[in-house]
Amino acid sequence: MTVHTWPQLDGIAYGGDYNPEQWSRDVWDEDVALMREAGVNFVSVGIFSWALLEPREGEFDFAWLDDLLDLLHAHEIAVDLGTPTASPPAWFYATYPDARVVTEDGTVLGFGSRGMVSHSAPEYRAAIERVAGELARRYADHPAVVLWHVHNEYGAPVSDDYSPHAVAAWRLWLQERYGSLDAVNAAWGTNFWGQRYLEWEHLVAPAVTASVINPAMKLDWARFTDEQLRACYCIERDAIRAHAAQPITTNFMAHQSYNTDLWKWAQEVDVVSDDHYLWSPDPDAHVGLALSADLTRSVARGRPWILMEHSTSAVNWQGRNIAKQPGEMHRNAFTHLGRGADGILFFQWRASRSGAEKFHSAMLPHAGTSSRVFREVTSLGQHLGALTDVRGSRVTADVAVLYDWESLWAQDLEWRPADELGFRERMRAYYERLWRDGVTVDFAHPEDDLSAYRLVVAPASYLLTAAAGENLTRYVADGGTLLVSCFAAVVDEHDAVHAGGFGAPLKTALGLTVEEFLPMRDGEGCVVELDGHELTADVWSEDLVLDGAQVRGTYRGGPVDGAPAITRNTHGDGTGWYVSSRLDVEALAPVLAAVYADAGVKPADRPEGLEIVTRHGEDSDFVVAVNHRAEAAEFPVQGTEMLSDTPVDGMFRLGAGDVAVFRTSPARGGDL
Ligand code: GAL
User: Fold this and answer.
1) Do 113 and 230 lie in a common domain?
2) pLDDT at 161 > cutoff 50
3) Atom of ligand 1 nearest to the CA of 47
4) Closest Cα to residue 151, out of 235, 67, 95?
5) 321 and 242 share a domain?
6) Cα angle at 185 between 180 and 188, to 5 degrees?
7) Total domain count for the chain?
8) Ligand 1 atom at minimal distance to the Cα of residue 277
9) Is the dihedral of CA 259, 462, 283, 400 positive or negative?
10) What is the pLDDT of residues 383-430, one digit of tens each?
């Protein structure tokens, strides 16, 4: 069997989740006609259809799905066929009550919504293997099916499970990982608070207790949960692969996911796909979107990926669900495309009349075809139709930002020196600085080979293994520039403080360690003086012990008035920078400017809010420009604007809120 690594499609994939089981058969005919009108060539079906496909245990009814796939194929709409395992049917809950999820506080989760049952329950695992296998057996050769979509958003809406099945699996997992209880006790430091285990049966799940749970235990629990979810994915994937050669994916949630270590997950899929929803209270949500897209491309190791879900307008699950402005959907879609997506899909095709998501926007809204949203959807379909040649082209970057889910899990545990110093907020602040400077970045794991990058930025490396510390030190010695933000390299893989003091694994690269963390009270703050700039810092400061590093920025006020705040160290052929306080996006500007100069990174010379990313193809480059500004912006470019098929030779004026894509010659174009 020759396994495909990308869906067999003629163009950029365009469409969305399609849930026709919510509609009568005559509506399906209207749907496919309107899909064609909108330029849709690809839909995801069956994601929540278990109750229809297997109405009673072991009894399958594929008639409606046969009809649907034939209809879609007749209209040249390719299918991403979902396995329905994110929403087991009522019979499953009734037949296997012990397979229900138990939450941290002992609540047993019931039926009536969606969400997987216990991912450790043998009955669930048997059922998903059966339904995925039956689907694959039936549709392996259906010409409409070009991709398999396993489950839906692993980790949502529940991931942690404290049921008896989970606890049994947890004990086995610990036995395999550690081999002996002595090793578990050592890794978790159980002599603290007298938590020592002498019997495997005494090991419990980290559920609600009187005070804070052993943090190393919780960190292992996060790893265990991630692996249990992934094991379920692999069961389904293998059941499909036994029959079918189409590529297999499952939709990630990149920066919005918590329980899935996507570096590991990406190795198990043929095609990386991702869901992204704007966080509407954030006025610069498009920056978070760009972060998510870069992270998705990075876990895909640079290969093209599919945006499996986003919204045409408002979602329905935020406190106030803000509709997208005219043009915003285009900008969102083109940011994803510019950052490597070869598929642009939505949740969902037709807005549901019933159920929990009836106020969620769709490609075909309740208002019908005479609506702004449908007009924009149709125009986006036309635009993407003109971009077939962009497929397969790649984004490259000189700068890597370190991202490690294990560090996120560890930093988010309880009883930290300051809760406000978070993994995600630091990641966003540093990413946003780079975004505003027009610097395209990849994300990387701290143990990756980083030698291709001029600059490596570590915004949130609280957990850093000794191996990662050696990797980063070697990177600097070999000529790289490393920028590390505060509260870094504090603990190892067991959330134990590194011997040698805070930051010890990076001592050689940075020329310092940290003697004491010095959080500040609300409103206290301080100033960091750097190259004549007065940078406002809040929440966090540190007392540094320099061992070779030079002082570049100095604290004024705060707990260590006059002490070093920002340092630069030379080690081997490279440089290690350290920022010991919490600086916001504005304050980071002069810091990054100095670091870019060391690294030989050139920030873009263009107005802030004009986002430009280049995808490199075999014979051409594709320059994707998105103007988030309220006014037009001009920039130099030579080539053809592909959406309007217009030659451009010199300055191009991009209207307020508009998008454009240019085909340029690689020799002349390159990264703008
Ligand atoms: C996603 C989910 C979809 C739909 C959507 C609404 O997380 O995969 O099924 O619920 O959210 O925004």
Assistant:
1) yes
2) yes
3) 9
4) 235
5) no
6) 125
7) 4
8) 12
9) negative
10) 999 999 999 999 999 999 999 999 999 999 999 999 999 999 999 999
Together in a domain, 416 and 308: no
> Ligand 1 centre and the CA of 33: distance in Å?
25
Going by alpha carbons, the residue nearest to atom 3 of ligand 1 is 347
Residue 256 alpha carbon to ligand 1 centre in Å = 12
Tally the residues of the chain.
Answer: 672
Query: How do residues 36-51 score in pLDDT, each as one tens digit?
Result: 999 999 999 999 999 9
Active-site positions read: 153, 309
Say whether pLDDT at 669 is over 60.
Answer: no
Closest to 118 (Cα-Cα) out of 80, 172, 160: 160
The pick from 275, 350, 352, 360 for probing ligand 1's pocket by mutation, whose C-beta has the most ligand atoms within 8 angstroms, reads 275
Average pLDDT, the chain: 97
The beta strands (E) that lie in 233-377 are given as 248-249, 251-252, 273-275, 305-309, 341-346
What is residue 672's predicted lDDT score, i.e. its pLDDT?
63
Ligand 1 atom at shortest distance from the alpha carbon of 156? 7
Where does residue 525 rank: exposed (0-12), middle (13-18), buried (19+ CB within 10 A)? middle
Q: How far is the CA of 262 from the centre of ligand 1 (A)?
A: 19
Handedness of CA 601, 605, 611, 614 (dihedral sign): negative
| Per-residue pLDDT at 257 | 81
Instruction: Tell me the residue type at 7.
Output: P
Which atom of ligand 1 is found nearest the CA of 48?
A: 9
Is 459 in contact with 422 (CB distance < 8 Å)?
no
For tokens 């780079």, the residue is 434
In the reported structure, the alpha carbon of residue 145 is separated from the centroid of ligand 1 by a whole-number distance in angstroms of: 22
Q: How far is the CA of 38 from the centre of ligand 1 (A)?
A: 22
CATH number, residue 63: 3.20.20.80
- Cα–Cα distance, 179 to 200 (Å, whole number): 11
Write down which residue in 205, 240, 269 finishes a domain. 269
State the distance from the centre of ligand 1 to the C-alpha of 574, rounded, in angstroms: 45
Question: Which residue minimizes the CA distance to atom 12 of ligand 1?
Answer: 315
Out of 256-260, 263-267, 432-436, pick the least confident. 256-260
> Has residue 14 been placed in a domain?
no
- SS3 state at 671: coil
Atom of ligand 1 nearest to the CA of 253: 7
pLDDT of residue 667: 60
Q: Domain of 239? A: 46-269
Is 624 among the domain residues?
yes
Report which residue type is found at 72.
L
Residue % of the chain over a pLDDT of 70:
99
CA distance 187 to 493: 9
Q: What is the pTM of this model?
A: 0.98
Is 203 within a domain?
yes
- pLDDT exceeds 80 at position 367: yes
According to the model, what pLDDT value does residue 671 have? 63
16 domain-assigned: no
Q: Which of 292, 357, 358, 361 to mutate to test the pocket of ligand 1 (most atoms within 8 A of CB)?
A: 357
Residues with CB under 6 A from ligand 1: 152-153, 275, 277, 309, 315, 347, 357, 360
Percent of the chain's residues with pLDDT above 90? 97
Q: What DSSP character marks residue 193?
A: G
Give the pLDDT score at 511: 98
Residue located via tokens 């495909």: 4
Protein residue whose Cα sits closest to atom 4 of ligand 1? 347
Residues 385 and 403 in one domain: no
